[in-house]
Amino acid sequence: MSMSARSAHFRLHYVTSARRSRSKMAAAAGASAAQSSTRDEAFETFYTEVKQIEKRDSVLTSKQQIERLLRPGSTYFNLNPFEVLQIDPEATDEEMKKRFRQLSILVHPDKNQDDVERAQQAFEAVDKAYKLLLDPEQKKRAVDVIHAGREYIEHNMNQKRKQLKKDGKSTVIEEDDPEVFRQAVYKQTMKLFAELEIKRKEREAKDMHERKRQREEEIETQEKAKREKEWQKNFEDSRDGRVDSWRNFQAKGKTKEKKNRTFLKPPKVKMEQRD
């Protein structure tokens, strides 16, 4: 093969390889874009369904709302203030205020005379959630937990797809179903709220134990100082008593000594008289 022929062959091979590489890159980019588009569509569908569920649940009767707020596991379900008020994390302050009024009226004990005690509990849950969201810092924490729950599920979904692709299998997973994705995010979010609450209670119990220990030490220190003060006072009093006793003893000793030194006078001799 001549030099010119070899050069032409090389150029043809290079152009063909380049075309193949571009085709592969375009296909990969297309697949990535399609996958990203699928995820975006799944999330939009999920978000739409959540809104529909919130809208459906928002018209529950007083009795249904009380049941919802006091259902088994409500201790943890109600940790999410947005879940309690059935509003979106992006809701405005005015929307939150409006929703709070609606719910508080529905579950107010005065409106539920046949179930006053449970109505009071439901009302307190609504009131607590609303007050929490009025605090910017507390609201931000709640929003962060919700975002963390969604990001956790999305990360797991990406890991599953990578593993399936590595194994040469279809990258379609069950979470691609909007309903499954919604449930997964909901469960993970509730789990995060519960874990944070458990940690908060543990810290609170630890702080309470520490405060109790410090208080007991203070009381012990005060009692010890009191005992020492009483001992010192008793010692001073007893010392004064001992000194007085010793002085009295010495005084009696001297008196006795003086008595012992007194000489007996001989009887007077009467002179004999003579006639």
Q: Main attributes?
A:
275 residues; mainly alpha; Helix Hairpins; 8 helices; DNAJC8; phosphoprotein
Give a verbal description of the structure.
This protein has 275 residues and is mainly alpha-helical. Among the domains are: 58-134, Helix Hairpins, CATH 1.10.287; 141-238. Helices cover 80% and strands 0% of the residues. The protein is built from eight helices and no strands. α7 (136-166) crosses α8 (178-260). The longest helix has 83 residues, at 178-260. 15% of the residues are buried. Residues 204-275 are annotated as: Disordered. This is DnaJ homolog subfamily C member 8. Interacts with SRPK1. Interacts with HSP70 (HSPA1A or HSPA1B).
Q: Helical proportion?
A: over 70%
Shape: elongated
Helix-strand string:
HHHHHHHH
Radius of gyration: 47 Å
Structure class: mainly alpha
What's the tally of helices?
8
Strand percent estimate: under 5%
Distance between the termini: 201 Å
Nearest-integer average pLDDT: 79
| Number of β-strand runs | 0
Instruction: List low-confidence stretches.
Output: 1-18
> Describe the biggest sheet?
none
Biased composition (Basic and acidic residues): 204-245
Function: Suppresses polyglutamine (polyQ) aggregation of ATXN3 in neuronal cells.
Keywords: Acetylation, Chaperone, Nucleus, Phosphoprotein
GO cellular component, one term: nucleus
